[in-house]
Amino acid sequence: MMKKFFLLSMLCTTIFLTGCIKVETDLTINKDGSAVVKERVMLSKQLIALSKKQDPFQDAIQKYKDEPSMKVSKYEEGDMQGIEATKTIKNLADDKWNTSPDTDKIKSKNPDGKFVSVQKGFFKDTYTIDAEINTIDQNQQKGLPSASNMNNTMANDVDPNDFFKVNYIIKTPVKPESHNATTANETENIYTWQLKLNTINTIKMKFTVFHTANITGAIILGLILCMIIFGLVYKPKA
């Protein structure tokens, strides 16, 4: 029995160190206030090969199919396979996805309680993200056996973050004024938060989208009014 447990522990440790599980949320925000959310769950092909299920993603696919606003498809990235659920949002400010985040895991610190707070104006729209994402195992919070405790039992040197990757990716239409992303591709305005397990992660970002058409129109209208006033004030005497 001990021999079988030892072999199983070594096998699990080997798999875990290969980075076998990856979860990503990919949010793209457009200038017009619309957005696209993509949620991906991926497993390493090595782990899938060890699974007894022919299709380990079937349950997850069925779950997303119950949500008509989600489009689900198979997804592959390098040596990983999984599923990708896509949701298109016409108005991010008022969409249920934004106004009703998962309160167990995501806590908005914005005054309006939204994950992305949008302050709309005639000349500009301001987007603010100030949220906490809780990745603490619920069993661990209750003092019950948790996945992290099991990992520590198997191998004290194994860090769960080495095999379970959780990323939050935000693509913005303009360069943000501020953010606390782990990595940033400022050429394409793609910002990635590499979330840590068993802790409270914070996501902060603020950016402003200026309405150039409205600004230009206001300037032109102002110039026309100035010319009219100037013409009335300095009208030549007959």
In short:
28% of the residues lie in helices and 36% in strands. It is an alpha+beta fold and 238 residues long.
Task: Give your account of this protein's structure.
Helix content is about 30%, strand content about 35%. The protein is elongated, with a radius of gyration of 25 Å. The chain starts with a helix and ends in a 5-residue tail after the last helix. It has one domain (about 1-235). The protein has seven helices and twelve strands.
Record keyword descriptors for this entry:
single chain; 28% helix; alpha+beta; 238 residues; 7-stranded mixed beta sheet; disordered N terminus; 5-stranded antiparallel beta sheet
Radius of gyration: 25 Å
The count of strands amounts to: 12
The structural class is: alpha+beta
- Measured distance between first and last alpha carbons: 113 Å
Shape: elongated
- State the assembly state of the protein chains: single chain
Major sheet:
7 strands, mixed
Mean pLDDT, rounded to whole units? 79
Strand order of the largest sheet: 3-4-2-1-8-11-10
How much beta, percentage-wise?
35-45%
List the total number of helices.
Answer: 7
Report the uncertain regions. Answer: 1-18, 139-148, 150-155
Written as H for each helix and E for each strand, in order along the chain, the element string is: HEEHHEEHEEEHHEEEEEH
In helices, the fraction of residues equals 25-40%
Task: Indicate how many domains the architecture comprises.
Answer: 1
